[in-house]
Amino acid sequence: MRYLRHLLLSISSCLVLLKTASIPCFAAEQIIFRYGVFEESLPVADLRKYAQRQEVSSNLQYVLNFFSLAEQKEFHQALQVKMSLELAALDKLLNTELAKENLSLVSQSIARRDTAGVQALNAAVILGANSQEGLGIVSFIEAYPSSRLIINIPAVLKVVNKLNLFPSEIPPKDNLSSTSTWQMEVQYQEFATKGKEFSACLFGDSVTAELGKTMGKGTFNFALNGLSGISLVEQLKLLIPNKIKCNKAVIAIGANDAWYGLSDTLFANKLQESISLVQKLGSSQIFLIPAFYSTVVASKDPNISATNARVKQINQVIHQVAVKNQIAFEIQQVESLNQNDALKDNFSSEDGAHLNNQGINIYRQVLLNILNK
């Protein structure tokens, strides 16, 4: 799921609020998957029903048949992603050369008879972001200003390849800071937070990123999908010059470090460096969250996560670093999510490596309790 999320964020992060008066005010009713001379049509309403209630129409079933069961679960979970983005920061992001290049690249994956592809994408982002549910895959498609959204499959595959959205090896390595999607995500954060003071800042991987902007006023969520200690250090180095102040900070990494194969020594060094960099943001209190376990089944699949045994070892390293720095290691706070060093199935998302809505609500309350100490 983390790679599908990267694709969605790469699209939305490249788009800004542009005037679209010349674009017809239609809304997409059909998604057309085009591969050469072959086309398959899917009503947008069918996609929404699948996202909300997992109802599968005959048209959608035809499309899903091309995916494995695991990929179907990943796709359904990606449909649940909603993003609340600050439009002023997005506007600044568009003026970067990197964003312009990616915007042009993404627009090539949607076929049109005219040359208004970029404007159409912008219109879809505007309306999708202004929808009640926020910007997500379904709201974006529903807002696309044409009765048909024609997706050119070969072009999409080229976009995914150029943006490095899929790992070249399993388990993957942390090369996030070299990818354009990660660079745009961090640039967006720089624009959104420059010169501001926050009561609390969250730094972490996809589990913490799923909290979005739900932690209340005064808290900024800097968490990024796929983050490990390696990329967290690079992220913090870019944020510090922007004179951001975080009175309190939460660092929640480790699961990806275990998955990427970082040694105990390298992970400890990167975590220590991250703590030192966070202190430069003015944090008087820093809280370390243990690495999140996956379910028993997911922990046995190297395509999804590290083994839970390795995650447990990483947590021992986090504890050692916490003791050395005399900062809180909040392992007991999140134990309700786990059983026998594994994520409970009833709190797990479909891939077994993330939290479902119930799990996210528990994690949110845990963080609120920690930050209110």
From TrEMBL:
<keyword id="KW-0378">Hydrolase</keyword>
<protein>
    <submittedName>
        <fullName>Alpha/beta hydrolase</fullName>
    </submittedName>
</protein>
<dbReference type="InterPro" id="IPR013830">
    <property type="entry name" value="SGNH_hydro"/>
</dbReference>
<feature type="domain" description="SGNH hydrolase-type esterase">
    <location>
        <begin position="220"/>
        <end position="359"/>
    </location>
</feature>
<dbReference type="Pfam" id="PF07176">
    <property type="entry name" value="DUF1400"/>
</dbReference>
<dbReference type="Pfam" id="PF13472">
    <property type="entry name" value="Lipase_GDSL_2"/>
</dbReference>
<feature type="signal peptide">
    <location>
        <begin position="1"/>
        <end position="27"/>
    </location>
</feature>
<feature type="domain" description="DUF1400">
    <location>
        <begin position="27"/>
        <end position="152"/>
    </location>
</feature>
<dbReference type="GO" id="GO:0016787">
    <property type="term" value="F:hydrolase activity"/>
</dbReference>
<dbReference type="InterPro" id="IPR010802">
    <property type="entry name" value="DUF1400"/>
</dbReference>
<keyword id="KW-0732">Signal</keyword>
<dbReference type="InterPro" id="IPR036514">
    <property type="entry name" value="SGNH_hydro_sf"/>
</dbReference>
